[in-house]
Design brief:
The protein has 8 helices and 4 strands; from the N terminus they run βαββαβαααααα. It is of the alpha+beta class. Helix 1 (11-24) runs antiparallel to helix 2 (41-50), helix 4 packs antiparallel against helix 5 (109-124) and helix 5 (109-124) crosses helix 7. This is PaaX family transcriptional regulator C-terminal domain-containing protein.
Length: 182
Amino acid sequence: MAVFSVPESERSYRYQLRTRLTWLGFGNIAPGVWLAPGRLLGDARDMLVRLGLSDYVHLFAADYAAFSELPDTVSSWWDFPAIEEQYAGFTRAYGPVAEGLTPEREIDGAEAFRHYVPMLTQWRRLPYLDPGLPAELLPADWNAVGARQIFQQLNDVLAPPSLRHVQEVTGLAEETEAADAP
């Protein structure tokens, strides 16, 4: 749990705190009170120190104790429909690419690179927006699992030929081969 208070005269820090906590996967419980799974405590602490925001925040390790059904309450702290839409957009964009690629099919390095870089760029923000909550606290039709499978498949198939392509284009392939030669 992150609890923060920022003076009105330093409003830009308040915006920065909210933005960065959201990027880490925190959900907003009330003004100045944010919650995330305990596994994010170290990342939150590091980020707050690195950005010079730690003077405004108190971090707690907490457990939910009582008074409502937690799955219903959690859905008010995170914008699950917005997160699911991000995953759905990824699946719409890259599901067809994944269907056309298999580890057995030899893929041209330039083609792999053309798919890999935008795919990786779109994916990069999703794990940060996803709070990583236990399945019992997520919507029943949570679409992150399918999107994650598509990402993993594409990463496995596209990353090696993309790297080879970059090495060839930049001339690093020759340097690598020379360094590996006896």
